[in-house]
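Standup notes, protein team

Yesterday: finished cleaning the Caenimonas aquaedulcis set.
Today: DMT family transporter structure.
Blockers: none.

Input for DMT family transporter:
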Amino acid sequence: MNAPAKAISGTAFATLLLIALMMGANHVAARVAFNHGVDVATAVVFRSSVTALVIVGLLAMQGVRVAFTARHKRMLPAIGLLIGVQSLCLYSAVARLPVALALLAFNTYPIWTALWSRLLYKQRPERAMLVAMPIILLGLALALDVFGAASGLGAAGQWARIGAGVAFALAAAGTFGLALVVTQHEAGDVDGRVRTATTMVMAGLVALATVTLQGGFHLPDAPAGWGGLAALTFLYGTAFTIMFTVLPRLGVVGNSAIMNVEPVFALVLAWLVLGQSIAPVQVVGALIVVGAVMTLGLRKRT
């Protein structure tokens, strides 16, 4: 995940912002679906299965050859399992928190990435990460209103309201950070398109297993729920399709830091679509988190 050597084009920048908008809208659509009978596992099955089919189709059209080493055969399913858990946890957070706050808590994943790198591969965090960590945490504390000042509920009341959602979002961040580290060290030499296809297949299987354990699919109970389910599937799948078909031609990696503005888009969309709003001090915290994470991603690495 090296920073690009030169500034990206205006077209590439606009494309990255479009992807961030789609991903933010995907989570808002998911909340609409959750509000009308859909459960988390059902949403992940639909989203992951359709996306996997699209990506596999693209691989077939492009004639990509697939060859795995013994290490890849061990690690790719593990990475897919982690992303499956991450998907379930993040949607669980979106179902319980204002969408933007769920995504902001998830945006702490760079901290988790540094932690896992240190624990598993003995890599010391870069100085930039050490500087950014307290800034990200401060911004998150403001955004989540951890002392309940903005809500007027007090710390106990606020955590009773947001505690479960925050726990799911942080679990999503932790598993995603672990998946990134394992991918870098154990599967970094696998074609990114192939890696993402296997990941989506595994994520869908994890969600399908969850659906089976809970007794079956929980489908929408109103037209708005069907619209939300269709929208989240379309937006997620389309965003990934753009990543595979457009970004490589523009010379931009799919995980560019510019896409970390997703919570900002989600904040606006959730206000427009769901009527969700947060206090001004929480908006300030959100901007601090997004700014710090983007700065980390855009820094030049030696």
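Follow-up from PR in the comments: The two ends are 12 Å apart (CA to CA).
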